[in-house]
Amino acid sequence: MAPIPTIDLPASYESLSLTHIKISHSPIGSPTVTPVVVISLNRPENNNAFTPQMADSLTQAFHLFHIDPRIKAVVLTGAGKMFCAGSDLEIGFGDGGGRAVDFRDIGGRVALAIHRCHKPTIVALQGSAVGVGMTMTLPAAIRICHEKGKYGFVFTRRGLTIESCASYFLPRLVGFSRAMHLITTGGVYPPPCRNILAISLPRLSRRRPKFCRLAQDIAEYTSSLASSMSRALMWEGPSSPEEAHLLESRVFHHMVGQPDYKEGVGSFLEKRKPRFKADPRESCPPNFPWWTAANIFLEPSATKTSKL
C-alpha cells in the first residue's frame, strides 16, 4: 500500500502568500492559528473578478482547512465594494479547443473544495455578486448579504451554461421552480434573491466582530464532527424517507458513542461552554462516505509510442 501523503500545516495562515486572495485570523494578527479564519477575495480594483489563480488559491486554502484540526469555521468575503463580479471576461475561458472530456471548470473545483471541507463556511457577501460569484457560494453552510446588493446567475445572458456544480446545489437550496426562474431569466435581483441568501443585513459592516460573530459562535458551541456529518446527510442523503431513516440511525448510533456527545450533554447539564475535540477526519462513522464519489481526475495519456 502506498504511503498516505502528508501536508505541512502553516504556523500562521496570515503568512501564506496566495494569489488573488488574503487569509487572516480572527482576531487579525493572532500569532497562532485561530478557530475562525477569514478568506477575502483580493482583487478590489477588478471587483474581485474570478481568475484561474484565484481558483487555485481558494482550492488550496480549503484543502488546508479541511485537514487542519485547529480550524472550526471559515468566513469567505471580498475586499472592496463588490463580493465578486463573476469571471474575469478579459481573461475568458479559452476558445473551446481540446477535448471536452478533459475540461474541468475552475469554479467547480472551488465549489467542490468548499463542499468537501469538514469545516462549515459562512459567506459574507459584502456587496453584489453575479455568475461564479454566486455559484461558488452555493455549497457554503450560510450566506449573508447586504440588502443593497444585487445578486444573480447571469450565465444565459453571456451565452453560457451554469457551472460550479450549480445544477446540483441550486435546486436543492431553493427548489426546482425557483432555480429554473433564476437560470432562465439570467436576471439580477435584490435580496433575498429567491431565498438563496439566508440572512440579509441592512448594513454589512467591515468591522471584523460584526461578520465573524456567527462563525465564532459556531466554532465555540458546535461539534465539528456533528456539523460535518449533518451537512453530509443532507447533501448526500438517500432518495426515500425509509432509506434516510436507516442511514440516519446508523450515523446517530455512531455519534452517541463519541466523546463529543458526552461533552455536549455534560456541558449542558453543567451550564458551561462545551469543549468539543473530535476531528471529523479521524472520528467519522465507519460507513462514511456512504455514497460513491465520482472520479474527477483526468485520465493519463501517452506522450510517445514505446519501442518495446
From TrEMBL:
The organism's place on the tree of life at top rank: Eukaryota
Family: Belongs to the enoyl-CoA hydratase/isomerase family.
Protein name: Enoyl-CoA hydratase AKT3-1
